[in-house]
Specification:
The chain has 25 helices and 12 strands. A hairpin with a 2-residue loop joins strand 10 and strand 11.
Length: 547
Amino acid sequence: MSYLVLARKWRPQNFDQVVGQESITQTLKNAIKMERVPHALLFTGPRGVGKTTMARLLAKALNCEKGPTDTPCDQCPSCRQITQGNSMDVQEIDGASNTGVDDVRQLRESVQYRPSSSPYRIYIIDEVHMLSRGAFNALLKTLEEPPDHVFFVFATTEPHKVPQTIQSRCQRFDFRRIPPQMIISRLRAISKEEGIKISDPGLRLLARQAEGSLRDGISLLDQAVSFSGKEIQDQKLNELLATVDRRHLFDLSEALVNARPKKALEILDLVYESGYDLKQFLKELTDHFRDLLVVKFVEDPAQLVELSDPELEEMKKQVNPVSEDVLLPVFEFLLQAEDRMGRTEHPKVVLEFVLVKAASLKPMLRVEELLSELETLKKDLGSGKLNLSRDDFELEGGPSPSQAGPVKEGGPEGGLKAESSPEPRTWPGFLGFLAKGWPGLGGMLKNGKFSGEENGIIRVEFGQNDFCLDFLAEPSRVAQIAHLASEFFGKDLKVICQATANSGPASEAVLPPGIKREKIQQELLNHPLVQKAVEIFGARLEEIKIK
């Protein structure tokens, strides 16, 4: 059987036919014209992008009877032999199967001989990174100072494995992945010449599966012809490549961005029952969401996504009403799921969990919006727009003492007492009042010694290094105690918690009299924006400072 696969049949025969590597072809053509071709070249890049093809074209250009020329004739014996792969002066060596020092020694001996029928002897070593360290070391001297009639061309997909001592002796050319649109154009031209009928969506699917490799794209086209003949239907192509119907991808993405977990699970189950590989499906879904993000953020996405016009329009309709705060977390979940899928024996369960979690996300308040609202609140506080009445003011849900009766001075223990109240307006009565609604504060104050009230100041003394003093000295707790005391005793009071006079310097926590600060503090605590911030960040309020 003499069938020649399409990838070999349509291999470029001159520099102008090379697709997607214009800068490299132009550099090599100029070097040939100026007779500045380096004696050692290193071609790096992914598979199927033209590295070996470019090496053969360079060999043909150097050994053509009309050369060196950037437009070899393809008619002379040297050109024909190189095209057919049987030239004695152009040797292609597989680095994976010739890795030892002995192989390189044979090469070093052969370079000393003149070419048999061509101007130059050219060595093309493919996958050069597979050579052993000893082989690389044996090659160094020959590579640095080869005979005038010898050229080396190295090709590799993993340049980081090539020692720097080798790379420094070569002129390096980095081949890039071929853009999908160029692959589509090349496949369309080949299909036309071969009489193959395939739709534009089918060509886009082949280009997407090729992942930047033109050789892979042509090979997939060849395989599709073998599977379904020269009239390739989209359904047959999906079946051959085991790819999911794109309708499922659009339906699933719509379910995820609109928080419909039940619908997402139904689509996944349909895909699973159809026999598709779930890891491949997740890859396609991730690529699909990548396209959605491009459509969302890029004004003209046609150059960055390989979509038909109807698909592009459907994506725009799908993402325009959706916030990026919804799209980005879903995309992140899918990326994390790819790692999990590679380590699990239950891919369907993992994917179900990820889809339900992604479809159950709640919109989050953006930090910028939160800061804007806080700034507005700050302005309102400064302008006095926020007001609270004395009767509406409460702390921590405890009993409000705002209904307290009149207070008179002159009672026992410092002279504080009250009339017509459930609790006597004394210091023990105040501690009893605190025990009902604020037992923590009451218990701490009970450990101190009440020293009396004078000129609106209540003093409570604690032993030196008493931890209760440190606890009660916090500004937020001092403010709370002062407010409760003012309400309980019916007048504005200061509260001073201090160490005993004979135990060292005093440690005071003072709140100026008045209820204005407490009103502002309580309104801040009850403000919806502050409560929302606490809910979002899972925080708790430690202290409120009012300047």
